[in-house]
Design brief:
Chain lengths: 543, 95
């Protein structure tokens, strides 16, 4: 089967097929190949019907390295013959494999046999693309259709010219997308709320970075909705502008023609076209029918001088005007409507904003699942206050590290602690309280934090009873209660009967927080801090 | 030069009617195709050899959609230029 058909065999086959003599066939074939040869050299191209095209193609000169000598060799520019089979031949050749069709792979399909290397970055790109595609699927029915359509076209045509097909795909895709947007606009026109639009306005920058939609549609649309909204936005924008411009600009000529127009707006019957000037200075496009159109920069400056009347008067007064010009409203509405013809892009940003919010909520949930809905203990303020005692903090950190590494054998620990501090635990609150009055003047900044964290906790005679929530440790408790992490040891000692292991603090455990006087706790007193640190060290050393 | 030109030149050289030459060329092409489909190598005198090669299947990624497509294996015709033609090509002036 794998023979080489040379000229002689070709001659024999041709004689059989064409019923000519061997000599005729030989001369014919020789002449044929000779002609092809010459034609190739002269015309650089020879096309044979149903066979294919032989073509000379240029190869540019390039440097190469001689494998044997290692010298650099310049391979001069030359021609090479490239052959491309015609469709009929290619199909005939590929007959045995023609049952294969390109197969679209899912993400989780692993390719075992293929040597094809897909780099990591490529995979990431693919995932991102998929995610984007998923989002689009959620957002837009039209997009969903589009994605469904693609594989079919690919399957049909990718067999021969995948690259060309790709190009075609991009073309159709973009076209479809734009068309979809246009289709949607009419429906959205009436439905959209102002709030929604404002939300979208904030979000759209991100979204447009992702999707290649023309940004030409963005700029002016959100502000123009209906007359009322226009005025509302105007007041806001004016205030912003006033906030921005601090430099006093003196323009004697410009505000004077403007002022009367504002007043005219209160008596609107006579001067209808000019009314629109005060009401719509926000519009950057000077399409309003005003004979003298001032420059935008001048408009911007105007509120700095005549700021309060300009925004407020039209906003407040217009609805109550008995003879409010109908035409004014009409023109504005018409104007707005005309501009709102293409807000189809609003759909995608809205959905994406919702998705972002959902993701954010989930992220929060994931971060602290137990605390959701509860008030977060304001640790930060205490921490800030605490950071001033840098030395104490370092000590506390040390203790915490040691505490984490330590694995106490619980029984022995319990016994030792009992023998040593049993008397304290039995009840010396009165003694310590009376003996340590100066320790009571706690720093004022610490108190609000304490109060907040205590909401819902009982205060008993021997101290507060606190129910452990998710994420709380002895050190955080100590930080909240006493203002320094290193005092955790006292909480632990107070609750030794409940706690076997200081590192194991089950959620829902009720701990008694001893009053600071009991153990002479004062976070501003270096000696007290040192004592607590030493105590913790000792406890660790005993284990 | 296209097929018609080839037939024209051949008919002049061989002093044969065009129809005959056309039929013979068609026969020759069909023979070559036939032999190639049998997985035989066909040598074209002074030009080179036509042979069949298998292109392995591969996975390609559509850069637009990011979807991976398994492109099936296929058989293609490969032309190998004969040494004599190569020599002549070397002599060909580079434009």
């Amino acid at each position: 089967m794998n023979e080489k058909i040379n000229l002689q065999e070709l001659i024999v086959l041709l004689t059989q097929k064409s019923t000519i003599t061997k000599k005729e066939a030989e001369t014919f074939l020789k002449e044929c190949f000779e002609t092809m040869h010459e034609a190739l050299l002269n015309d650089r191209l020879i096309k044979v019907k149903n066979l294919g095209t032989f073509k000379l193609s240029r190869v540019n000169d390039r440097e190469s390295i001689d494998v044997v000598t290692g010298e650099r060799v310049l391979i001069p520019a030359h021609y090479k013959v490239s052959f491309s089979a015609e469709n009929a031949l290619a199909q005939a050749i590929n007959e045995p494999f023609s049952l294969f069709v390109p197969l679209e792979l899912n993400e989780d399909d692993s390719i075992v046999d293929s040597d094809e290397v897909i780099t990591f970055s490529e995979e990431i790109d693919m995932q991102e693309n998929d995610e984007l595609a998923d989002n689009l699927e959620d957002n837009d029915d039209a997009d969903f259709e589009l994605i469904l359509e693609e594989p079919e076209t690919e399957k049909d045509t990718i067999l021969f010219t995948p690259n060309e097909e790709n190009e075609n795909d991009t073309g159709t895709q973009d076209g479809d997308f734009i068309l979809d947007l246009n289709d949607d606009t009419d429906e959205i026109d009436e439905v959209n709320d102002v709030a929604e639009i404002n939300d979208v306005d904030e979000a759209d920058d991100d979204i447009f970075a992702e999707e290649d939609i023309n940004e030409e549609y963005i700029p002016v649309e959100p502000e123009i909705e209906r007359p009322n909204e226009v005025t509302f936005n105007l007041t806001r924008d004016f205030n912003e502008i006033i906030g921005e411009i601090n430099v006093p600009v003196e323009i004697p000529s410009i505000p004077e023609p403007e002022e009367p127009q504002i007043e005219i707006s209160l008596i609107p019957e006579s001067v209808e076209p000019q009314i629109e000037i005060p009401s719509m200075p926000e519009f950057a496009e000077p399409q309003i029918e005003t004979p003298p159109v001032p420059e935008p920069s001048e408009w911007r400056r105007e509120p700095q001088i005549e700021a309060p009347p300009a925004p407020i008067v039209p906003a407040g007064e217009r609805p109550f005007l008995p003879n409010a010009p109908v035409r004014e409203n009409y023109t504005i509405y018409k104007h707005g409507k005309r501009k709102l013809r293409y807000p189809g892009w609003l759909v995608v940003p809205t959905y994406l904003a919702i998705i972002l919010i959902v993701v954010f909520i989930f992220y929060r949930l994931y971060q602290n699942p137990g605390v959701m809905g509860e008030s977060v203990p304001p640790v930060s303020s205490v921490e800030n206050a605490e950071n001033k005692d840098a030395g104490n903090d370092v000590d506390a950190d040390k203790i915490r590290e040691k505490k984490i590494t330590l694995t106490p054998s619980e029984d022995s620990l319990l016994n030792v602690l009992k023998s040593k501090y049993g008397e304290h635990l039995v009840g010396l609150p009165d003694n310590t309280a009376s003996g340590n009055k100066p320790a009571e003047n706690k720093p004022a900044r610490n108190k609000p934090a304490e109060n907040k964290s205590l909401s819902g906790n009982q205060i008993s005679g021997n101290g507060k009873i606190i129910t452990i929530r998710y994420g709380q440790t002895l050190t955080t408790l100590a930080l909240n209660e006493y203002g320094n992490k290193c005092f955790w040891i006292y909480i632990y000692e107070e609750n030794r009967q409940i706690l076997k292991n200081p590192n194991d603090l089950p959620v829902g455990t009720q701990l008694t927080i001893p009053p600071p006087q009991k153990y002479n706790i004062n976070k501003n007193d270096a000696a007290s801090v040192r004592k607590a640190t030493e105590k913790a060290d000792q406890m660790q050393a005993r284990n | 030069m296209n097929s018609a030109g080839l037939i024209n030149t051949l008919s002049k050289k061989l002093h044969l009617p065009k129809a005959d030459v056309e039929k013979r060329v068609e026969d020759m092409v069909s023979i070559i195709t036939e032999e190639l489909t049998k997985n035989n190598t066909v040598s074209l005198l002074n030009l080179g050899n036509l042979e069949i090669k298998k292109r392995e299947e591969r996975v390609c990624v559509n850069p637009n959609t990011g979807k991976r497509v398994m492109v099936p294996p296929k058989l293609v015709v490969k032309f190998k230029t004969s040494p004599t033609l190569k020599e002549k090509l070397k002599g060909l002036k580079y434009e």
